Amino acid sequence: MIGVVVVGVGIAGSVRIRDLLKPLQSSPSENLKIVGFVSRRDLGEHNGVKQICLEEALRSSEVDAAFICTDNQNHEESVRRFLEAGKHVLVEYPMVLSAHAAHELWQMAEEKGKVLHVEHIELLTEEYRALKKEVDGRTLEKGVLHFTGGPLHKQRSGFTAFSGIARVTWLVDLFGELTVTSATQEENPGEDYSKLTAHFVTANNKPVTWIEERAPGMKREKKVNFTFTNGVLDSLPPARRGSVGPFMQDQNLFAQKLLGQVPKEELAAEKKRILYCIDLAEKIKQYCEH
Ligand SMILES: NC(=O)C1=CN([C@@H]2O[C@H](COP(=O)(O)OP(=O)(O)OC[C@H]3O[C@@H](n4cnc5c(N)ncnc54)[C@H](OP(=O)(O)O)[C@@H]3O)[C@@H](O)[C@H]2O)C=CC1
Ligand SMILES: C=CC1=C(C)/C(=C/c2[nH]c(/C=C3N=C(/C=C4\NC(=O)C(C)=C4C=C)C(C)=C\3CCC(=O)O)c(CCC(=O)O)c2C)NC1=O
Question: Where is it localised (predicted)?
Answer without folding.
Answer: Cytoplasm, Cytosol
